[in-house]
């Protein structure tokens, strides 16, 4: 069985048992819903205790449980073709240069981590149509200035 086949099996069982992602995440627990769903969709790994809970919930074999604990090959072809995912890509294409400029002005020369990262969303009722509020928080990682001589900053933190 491949990881893609395991994802399809999990989705089949989810449909068969009429599970919601909220139910699945509550049963597995231990980490963010985004990480759990991402792992079940093949983009993240579950630590062993959570892989065991997922295997029990979905009735998976020991081999399938071990697959949930393996580091996956992550990502998809770019640009994404799913309209909702593409909108995230579009937000970054359109707003990315401004976000970059604002973050660098505040923090210095570096990046926002996508590994040490939190994501949350909430539904906001609105008479013109409900809205999706997204919150993302990533650790700032300054670039290291290799070979910096004495008196020259070693990292790209904002200079005062």
Task: Briefly summarize what is shown.
This protein has helices at residues 3-16, 21-28, 33-40, 48-58, 62-68, 83-107; strands spanning 110-124, 131-142. It is of the alpha+beta class and 160 residues long. It folds into two domains: 3-68, 434 Repressor (Amino-terminal Domain); 83-142, Cyanate lyase, C-terminal domain (Cyanate Lyase, Chain: A, domain 2), CATH 3.30.1160.
Describe what this molecule looks like in 3D.
A two-stranded antiparallel ribbon has the order 1-2. It starts with a helix and ends in an 18-residue tail after the last strand. It folds into two domains: 3-68, lambda repressor-like DNA-binding domains (434 Repressor (Amino-terminal Domain)); 83-142, 2-Layer Sandwich (Cyanate Lyase, Chain: A, domain 2). It is 46% helix and 17% strand. It has six helices and two strands, in the order H-H-H-H-H-H-E-E. The protein is an alpha+beta fold. The protein has helices at residues 3-16, 21-28, 33-40, 48-58, 62-68, 83-107; strands at residues 110-124, 131-142. The active site is at 87, 90, 113. It catalyses: cyanate + hydrogencarbonate + 3 H(+) = NH4(+) + 2 CO2.
Which SSEs are present, and which pair or pack?
Blueprint: H1 3-16, H2 21-28, H3 33-40, H4 48-58, H5 62-68, H6 83-107, E1 110-124, E2 131-142
Antiparallel strand pairs: 1-2
EC number: 4.2.1.104
Active site: 87, 90, 113
Catalytic activity: cyanate + hydrogencarbonate + 3 H(+) = NH4(+) + 2 CO2
- Classify the helix fraction into a percent range: 40-55%
> How many DSSP H or I helices?
6
User: Can you identify the CATH superfamily of the largest domain?
Assistant: lambda repressor-like DNA-binding domains
Average residue pLDDT? 94
Specify the CATH architecture of the largest domain: Orthogonal Bundle
- Main pleated-sheet profile: 2 strands, antiparallel
Order of helices and strands: HHHHHHEE
CATH class of the largest domain: Mainly Alpha
What is the general shape?
globular
* Proportion of residues in β-strands: 15-25%
Protein name: Cyanate hydratase
Function: Catalyzes the reaction of cyanate with bicarbonate to produce ammonia and carbon dioxide.
Domain Cyanate lyase C-terminal: 74-146
InterPro entries: Cyanase, Cyanate_lyase_C, Cyanate_lyase_C_sf, CYNS_N, Lambda_DNA-bd_dom_sf
